[in-house]
Amino acid sequence: MTDTDKTTHDHDAANENAIAAFFNDGSTPKIGENFRAGFVAIVGRPNVGKSTLMNHLLGQKLSITSRKPQTTRHRIHGILTDDDKQIVFVDTPGIHKKEVKAINERMNKAAILALADVDLVLFVVDSLQWREDDLLTLEKLAQTNLPIVLVINKSDTVKDKSKLLPLMEEFSQSFDFADIIPVSALRGHNLDGLERLIASYLPLRPPIFDPEQITDRSERFLASEIIREKIMRASGDEVPYDLTVQIDNFKDEPAHQDPETGKWRKAVTFIDATIFVERAGQKTIVIGDKGSRIKQVGIDARLDMEKLFGRKIMLTLWVKVKKGWSDDERALSSLGY
Ligand code: GDP
Ligand code: MG
């Protein structure tokens, strides 16, 4: 159990509607007899396009993506519901080859754990780069009895489409996949086909989650992911992936009348967050020249949160050096990993 799991339901209960309104067009799907629902794990080495795939299937940006590998550290459920199916996506962290640091070990465990209760696995690979890590992942997957669909992503990067056929042939000989499908998550090629394919592997049953709900994660968790994404984007390759964001305070203040002036004040949520980096040099980079970078990160993150949560946000960011935290099991636990 992590902190983010624990807080899953407090804030969601109050603000589910705001989140649903943001993600939904307001139409409630009708549930018929042939409704299918289930869990789908998206597995593959870092950078093959797992987050991009889930986001495009959902039609919304939920899991964060980046050019840098390993921006997803947590399990994220994205939920796609329409008239005849509900697909609950689990976006797993990558499975790592070298378990050098404690955090990588945890991520490996999380990736395997994510498979415990799923109905189908999407094993994602890159059209152009089939590597040793992919084989390692496949070895782990082979230990389960789950149907595995091979998703050959980034098909847009293959100029001559006929080149994909021998590749598909090679894959089908290396493992007994339930199906093989080439897609481009980025361009949206063949995603309808993939969606239908997924549905065909799900059991007949009513929706698992409220059809209006897109995520079972708390706003607290989403807030920390948004901040992390903004830092990664703002600092390019200068800051490694091993930074973390801790939400220190998340307090809703309802709309109220100012006792002094009698004026009505809008509802606002105060969020204080600490960004932990490994070295002083990284702190300087995150803060930027005269604080310019952290200021922009704060503005961008706040705007995204206001759009997502549907209310005014007051965001305060701190940057701290927590030396070697990714090596320290205790420090990791205190951060909720
Ligand atoms: P993850 O680590 O597996 O979650 O990968 P991401 O979803 O973060 O994607 C990694 C990079 O690959 C990003 O720069 C994406 O824009 C890019 N990418 C993802 N899917 C595609 C695709 O279908 N085609 C191309 N050309 N790039 C893609
Ligand atoms: Mg990802």
Automatic annotation (TrEMBL):
Residues 153-156 are annotated as: G4. Keywords: Cell membrane, Cytoplasm, GTP-binding, Membrane, Nucleotide-binding, Ribosome biogenesis, RNA-binding, rRNA-binding. GO terms for molecular function: GTP binding; GTPase activity; ribosomal small subunit binding; small ribosomal subunit rRNA binding. It is a peripheral membrane protein. Residues 36-204 form the Era-type G domain. Pfam families: KH_2, MMR_HSR1. Residues 183-185 are annotated as: G5. GTP binds at residues 44-51, 91-95, 153-156. Residues 91-94 are annotated as: G3. InterPro entries: G_ERA_dom, GTP-bd, GTPase_Era-like, KH_dom-like_a/b, KH_dom_type_2, KH_sf_prok-type, P-loop_NTPase, Small_GTP-bd. GO terms for biological process: ribosomal small subunit assembly. Residues 70-74 are annotated as: G2. GO terms for cellular component: cytosol; plasma membrane. It comes from the Bacteria. An essential GTPase that binds both GDP and GTP, with rapid nucleotide exchange. Plays a role in 16S rRNA processing and 30S ribosomal subunit biogenesis and possibly also in cell cycle regulation and energy metabolism. Monomer. This is GTPase Era. It comes from Moraxella caviae. The gene is era.
